[in-house]
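job 3f2a | input accepted
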Amino acid sequence: MNKQANRTQSQADTPRARFDALPAERQAQLLDPAEAEFAAHGFDGASLNKILVAAQMSKGQAYYYITDKADLYRAVIERGLRRIAAAVSGSFAEPGSAIEFWQQFARLLRGITEVLLQDKTLAALARGIYQGTNSQAALTEPLSQIRAHVDKLIVLGQSLGAVRTDLPQSFLADTLFATIREIDRWFAAHWSELDETEAMRLNQKAAEMIAVMAAPAPGVPQ
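job 3f2a | predicted structure (222 res):
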């Protein structure tokens, strides 16, 4: 019993667990300057020392709450994802039919693009995700969580007849997740070239392309 209690206490007493337990305003003391630095310079170019100076924290204080720069970067991106999720929370709400499913999916993608058009810092963070392998490696956990949401959308879509059932679910999920990531990567690479009208047009076309890939093909047995 004592061993189990000690193990549970040890798992809870980690830098990230201590950071997550802080009030939002205390987290912001570190996350706000980190967000600005990562948005301006990407993961590789960001200086942890500059972040800590701006946060008025010593390395000893910081390492009580974070493991390293990658851990801080992950916390920044996760907070950004929560801001996006809060902004689009009403975009996808219990569709009752296949048509509603794809309408709401398109609305969800449109909402994400609208948030990035309005929030320059979030847009810069999103672009920075694709600037190197180190940033990708730091985001393994957030990406796995997004992939889990894709799995749930597929199950919901299949229950409504909106998503094909003639392929193994893992095959379909892997393909759609990879497609969504490549669309996101393309937008990140070309964001500065797009005005708002073109960004929203391409967003709609991307939603249509995903629907064509995932929806049951007419006349094909499921």
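job 3f2a | Residues 4-9 have pLDDT under 50 and may be disordered.
job 3f2a | closed
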